[in-house]
Write a structure and sequence with these properties.
By secondary structure, the protein is an all-alpha fold. It has one domain. The chain is built from three helices and no strands. Helix 2 packs across helix 3. It is elongated, with a radius of gyration of 25 Å. The termini are far apart. Pfam families: Mistic. It comes from Virgibacillus pantothenticus. This is Atypical membrane-integrating protein (Mistic protein). InterPro entries: Membrane-integrating_Mistic (IPR021078), Mistic_sf (IPR038193).
Length: about 80
């Protein structure tokens, strides 16, 4: 492929930008590792009820579960102070 000097410089700059973006990528690490059977159930539920509904339900469940861990931690801190 033949290119003019201007085209060559533009390509070089674009390539540098692409390499910089690639080097700054962070790995996509999931927050929770679901087992295969749970993934299958989630996918089936999304098909039946829609993604948005299932995402909200799962968020509500996780929020509730984590609220108990916060409450437990606060109770442990209060017991330690007594």
């Amino acid at each position: 492929m033949k290119a003019t000097e201007i085209e060559s410089k533009q390509f070089d700059k674009a390539l540098d930008t692409f390499i910089e973006l690639y080097n700054n990528l962070e790995p996509d690490v999931p927050l929770i590792q679901f087992t295969d059977d749970v993934v299958e159930q989630i996918e089936a539920a999304k098909q039946a009820y829609g993604e948005e509904v299932i995402h909200e339900k799962i968020n509500s469940i996780v929020r509730e579960a984590l609220s108990w861990t916060t409450l437990t931690k606060e109770m442990q801190e209060m017991d330690a102070q007594e």
